Amino acid sequence: MIGIFDSGIGGLTVVKAIMENLFGYDIIYFGDTARTPYGTKSSETVKKYALENTEFLLSKGAKIIVIACNTASSVATESAAENFDIPIFEVITPAVELSINTSHKPCIGIIGTRATIKSGIYKKKIKEMNPHARVYSKACPLLVPLVEEGWLEKPETKMIVKKYLHPLKVRQIDTLILGCTHYPLLKNIIQKKIGKKVNVIDSSIAVASNVRAFLEKHQEVDALLGKKGRCGFFVSDVTEQFEKTATSMFKRDIHLEHVKI
Ligand code: DGL
Questions:
Q1: Catalytic residue set
Q2: Residues 137/164, Cβ–Cβ less than 8 Å
Q3: Domain 2-90+205-258 has what CATH class?
Q4: Which of 4, 7, 53, 239 to mutate to test the pocket of ligand 1 (most atoms within 8 A of CB)?
Q5: Residues of the chain with confidence (pLDDT) below 70
Q6: Topology agreement, domain 2-90+205-258 and domain 92-203
């Protein structure tokens, strides 16, 4: 099974991308809805949550782990890799690689939660790959609650997105990384506000192709994964909003199982 976790509903964008890239693979998802948001918490707390979430997914039979949450990927990947002897994927590196490979200038913008932007991880990784790249980032703390509320098309949301993107737009970025699991759900608005010439990178798609490439190369790991198209959804708090969003994303009824972490 492929184990995927996020702080809440946002990681479903990663589940969807993995389902599309790795058709038929068994997936187990954990959304930490009781402890969300991670983006406003200290890195120590997020690390602790990430280890607990990984342990839970392993206990359910996961053989590889995808940290779908950008905040957890930013601050907890190293400690997860130190503590568990299985392949662990995070969403930052694949998005950075894609941005470096596609940005012509290169002039790259990043948007994410406060914790992700404060960690400076995207900038660090981009500069490691290309020291000449210009990098600008902007924390967008209001976007997660707007997505959680389902305010995907509201004029207020459009206005807030425009305001957040303004400082990146004036820098004339040619690539924008969506550094938060929730933002792909606002991709149309973000693309409109940043301008159609800007390449908007969805880290969920980037990580899905990364996992696929890894499994193609590592048949011994691939052989451990079930491929019966099963998908289990676990949450630490069952919320109506999660069920609504999951059902509308997958266009079928999603049954959520409650688990105490
Ligand atoms: N899942 C988080 C991320 O991708 C956003 C939500 C949160 O703050 O927990 O950064």
A1: 69, 180
A2: no
A3: alpha beta
A4: 7
A5: none
A6: yes
